[in-house]
């Protein structure tokens, strides 16, 4: 488990010792971690106030080392019980009023734009499954319908059903702040900034947030076969549902779900400062090399084999033989992110299929029929 990742407000029992040994179990309340470093940014609210900074970083190392070896217990396990997917428990006319727990910027200074990891406390009242979305109604009036609230915006949930605090009471979102730049001057125009993403990224702990949902079935993680292969293709915030899957597979101890298949994540972002949850994913690579693969495409930092920008479809092409074979063997493939990602990916898959003497149209219709093909783009 990568505890130096942007987890927030974890309440978890982990075996740690101040000296780094695997000492006794202590209950750590409200641990906040942020993306880029561990020491100074670590906030162990109830435990570490008494510790010196030096000791804090020792605890941090110890937590990382120990957590890698053991999965985290989750509660309440009744969240595994329902046979039916939770769907639309709260609708736009009667949303649930949840509370913001934390908002953390999770990209580095050189990232174009801003992406935030936002933890929302729903007090266990808006349960969801991995791969679903919440709706958010930003405060204020809908400019197109005076007197009416804003329209709902959907956000993929980036945590498992247990949330980042492993108690089933929170959900996390991965939100990119929508900014508007005048095409002529190149200057930002705050009057045209995205309403909901800015509301969420500017929110403070304790702020109220109106949520609807959960919604969506297309990105639910099929769990019947624990040895299945899951190929996940994400651009930017499209990584959100996959963070949830991967935490379920590799971070949490869920007695009724033991994953022993292959999860393969392709993540496309602009540059290394824009990577999302990279430390968390890298720790799975270290701990589960047989079960996890992680390939990144950094469009502004890397070149594809033709000398152009490295996009996620270039990575897919690089591994196309393996991917096609895995699909032939029943792998699930998921796509999530901006709509614009799909044409390039489809073109690449079609070209590869033709080079292999296969019809992409036939293959795609077979994948759809077999429920192996999952797309959520926005
Ligand atoms: P809006 O206020 O709706 O504005 C939309 C865009 O128009 C913005 O870019 C804004 O800058 C621009 N704009 C505003 N005024 C003008 C104007 N006068 N002229 C021209 N342009 C203008 N997003 C995420 O960040 N993370 C997710 O995980 C995520 N998951 C999603 C899942 C689904 C299933 C769907 C459908 C969408 C998802 N989205 C996600 C997108 C999200 O729902 C919103 O669309 C996004 O946050 C923008 O909403 P907003 O209210 O900030 O922008």
From TrEMBL:
It catalyses: 2 reduced [2Fe-2S]-[ferredoxin] + NADP(+) + H(+) = 2 oxidized [2Fe-2S]-[ferredoxin] + NADPH. Its EC number is 1.18.1.2. PROSITE patterns: FAD_FR. InterPro entries: FAD-bd_FR_type (IPR017927), Flavoprot_Pyr_Nucl_cyt_Rdtase (IPR001709), FNR (IPR015701), FNR_nucleotide-bd (IPR039261), FNR_plant_Cyanobacteria (IPR035442), OxRdtase_FAD/NAD-bd (IPR001433), Riboflavin_synthase-like_b-brl (IPR017938). CDD domains: CYPOR_like_FNR (cd06208). Gene3D superfamilies: Nucleotide-binding domain of ferredoxin-NADP reductase (FNR) module, Translation factors. The keyword Flavoprotein applies. It is found in: Plastid, Chloroplast. It comes from the Eukaryota. Keywords: Electron transport, FAD, Flavoprotein, NADP, Oxidoreductase, Transport. Its cofactor is FAD. Residues 93-221 form the FAD-binding FR-type domain. The keyword Transport applies. Belongs to the ferredoxin--NADP reductase type 1 family. This is Ferredoxin--NADP reductase, chloroplastic. The lineage of its organism: Eukaryota, Viridiplantae, Streptophyta, Embryophyta, Tracheophyta.
């Amino acid at each position: 488990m990568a505890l130096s990742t942007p987890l927030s407000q974890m309440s978890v029992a982990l075996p740690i010792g101040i000296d780094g040994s695997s000492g006794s179990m202590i209950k750590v309340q409200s641990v906040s971690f942020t993306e880029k470093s561990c020491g100074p940014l670590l906030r162990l609210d109830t435990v570490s106030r008494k510790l010196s900074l030096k000791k804090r970083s020792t605890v941090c190392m110890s937590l990382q080392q120990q957590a890698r070896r053991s999965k985290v217990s989750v509660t309440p396990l009744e969240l595994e019980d329902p046979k039916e997917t939770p769907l639309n428990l709260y609708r736009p006319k009667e949303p649930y009023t949840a509370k913001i727990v934390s908002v953390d910027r999770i990209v580095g200074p050189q990232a174009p734009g801003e992406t935030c990891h936002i933890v929302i406390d729903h007090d266990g009242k808006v349960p969801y499954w991995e791969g679903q979305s919440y709706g958010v109604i930003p405060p204020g009036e809908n400019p197109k319908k005076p007197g009416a609230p804003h329209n709902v915006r959907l956000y993929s949930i980036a945590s498992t059903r247990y949330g980042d605090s492993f108690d089933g009471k929170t959900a996390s979102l991965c939100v990119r702040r929508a900014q508007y730049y005048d095409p002529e001057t190149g200057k930002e125009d705050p009057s045209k900034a995205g309403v909901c993403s800015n509301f969420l990224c500017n929110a403070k702990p304790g702020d109220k947030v109106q949520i609807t949902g959960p919604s969506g079935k297309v990105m639910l993680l099929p769990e019947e076969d624990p040895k299945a292969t899951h190929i996940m293709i994400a651009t930017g915030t499209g990584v959100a549902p996959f963070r949830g899957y991967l935490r379920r597979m590799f971070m949490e101890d869920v007695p009724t779900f033991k994953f022993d298949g292959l999860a393969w994540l392709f993540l496309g972002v602009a540059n290394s400062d824009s990577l999302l949850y990279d430390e968390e994913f890298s720790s799975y690579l270290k701990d589960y090399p047989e079960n996890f693969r992680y390939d990144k495409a950094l469009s502004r930092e890397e070149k594809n084999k033709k000398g152009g920008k490295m996009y996620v479809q270039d990575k897919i092409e690089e591994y196309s033989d393996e991917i096609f074979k895995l699909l032939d063997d029943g792998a699930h493939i998921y796509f999530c992110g901006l709509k614009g990602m799909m044409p390039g990916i489809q073109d690449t898959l079609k070209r590869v299929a033709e080079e292999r003497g296969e019809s992409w149209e036939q293959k795609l219709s077979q994948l759809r029929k077999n429920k192996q093909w999952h797309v959520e783009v926005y």
